Input
Amino acid sequence: MKSWRLTTLHVFFVVLGGLITLRLGYWQIVKADELKSRAVSQRTASKTIPADRGDILDATGFPLATNRVSYLMYADPRLTGDISGAQLQLLMSALGATESGKVLKTLSTKDRAWVPVWPDLSKDAKSTIENLKIAGLGFESRPQRFYPEGSISGQLLGFVGHNDNGSPQGFFGLEGYYDKQLSGIAGKNIEETDALNRPILIGNQNLVPTQEGRTLITSIDRTIQFIIYQKLAAALEKYGAAAGTVSVMDPVTGNVLAMVALPGYDPQSFSAYEPNLYKNPIVAASYEPGSTFKVLVMAAGIDTKAISPNTKCSICAGPLTISGYSIRTWNDKYYANSSMIDVLQHSDNVGMVFVQRAIGKTKFLTYLKNFGFGELTGVDLQDEAAPPMRGIDQWYELDLATASFGQGIAVTPIQMLRAVGAIANKGKLMVPRLVTEISDRKIPIIPGKQVVSPQAAVQVTEMMVNSVEKGEAKWAKPKGFMIAGKTGTAQIPVAGHYDKDKTIASFVGFAPAYDPKFVMLVTLNEPKTSQWGSETAAPLWFDISKELLRYLRIQPTHGS
Amino acid sequence: MKKIFIITIIVNLILIMGQLVLSAKRATDGDALAKISAEIAQIDLENQDLKSKIYAYSSLENIEKRAAELSLSHVQAQFLNLSQPVAAAK
Output
């Protein structure tokens, strides 16, 4: 009996020992890796170090886009209790809110421990609210994009929103085009910490350094940007125009000095605006350039030697009929045997058909292509689009005729600015660009393409100077300066025909004519006071140019 | 032999004490480091806040607004066109 009990006890302990061994083996062998990683995760803290988004600076080094800290105010509604009337008033004032209903509704969700109350609070507002000592309110700092110059460069800069993963991402303009460079790469710090989350210095530490976003230095001059913004805003009101653009470029380098399109938006609060305002119409929207296009056709004519400035127009005595359509001049006045100088001065459509016919179809279309139409200019803005050019076999006589005076052909303002910039730059077509340096690394200028000879460019410049000196808008021209320019009034195509009341008035030109420091294009959509470019866009161009000539310290060269 | 044994014990005790002191010091260094890191983060935030205030105050829109408040008005650019000096009279 005694022996049986001893044996049972012996077996029991052997089985128990075996089970313990198996359990220990399970924890130490089978579950070893999992337990090890759990132990490591308990004593190590992994912290992502976000990369600061790079700044976008203007040519003088002033930030057009930078970062600032904002605070999200959150609450634990279970702790906030009832806020007194005076406290609520002070809270609303600190938040800059007029309506307290939304905040009170958020604070009344007592079944939740964390609710966001107000985004994007400044440090001062946060301090004010903290001083109110309302229980249950807390703040979380978060980086926010900040555009010090506000809405004057909205469409140029784009904005930073969030992508599908919830990560910040640049959209449109420079923010979109250079998103990768601006974003940087977040770093990581993995270190052993104690129970209070303080680092244990004798423990393991692993730091993956952050790669900060790169800083972009642009050719944008914020003073010029501000001048054209103010002038354009005033002009839209003065002329009752629905929209407008002004773009300024250095024709020699292709550096864009400023560009503004209105109506615009404030990138700081982009979500408060209609999404159709996000795209920059200077690079993304097409229009028919009208008579401003004539300078390019004239340059092609002179370059091919099909015409010279003194060539007489043999078909300019009256209207011209092509394929049943009548080609007329804008004021129905006709000048028989006028020279090409006069054709440009009078903005004579019939004279331009004469030039196009002299050039010939193939060469004419080759020049349009060489001037950069039908393709992207390569400007470093995300939203650029280029209206396609028809194939050579799809151009009929009437199409060629209307294209010669800028109707029936679609271009973007940046294409037009670049092409006229080539005339200013002795026939060399440059690639427009905004960013000149990325984090101290200079971006070389892309060499220009000679599209017309320097001689042809100078001859067209002389003709443009003559057009300004003797044209309809000569009264507005700044005295003492040689300015080359051309007005344009293009009808707007609506449902297959041209609306006779709606026009795009424009003026393109450069100054000083023979040593240009800037080329500028002004467009006004549907001006109400007058539909003509000479009475709206041209005065605006000259008004801006007066400021630019003074700002760029360009001296007058003659008395009138 | 006994003397060496006692010396060894004393040396070991000193080393253990030293280890304890150093460990304690390193442990509190972690605390100090955490405080310094928090202070740096706070100062960085304040720096960024001050920088953004400077940018906001120096924006041309703000300068224009301030100028208007001070009753300064915008002046149109004016150029003086002087006649060329006459070198010799007829």
Remarks:
- Residues 430 and 447 of chain A are 7 Å apart (CA to CA).
- The first strand of chain A starts at residue 44 and ends at 49.
- Chain A is about 35% helix and 20% strand.
- Chain A has a mean pLDDT of 90.
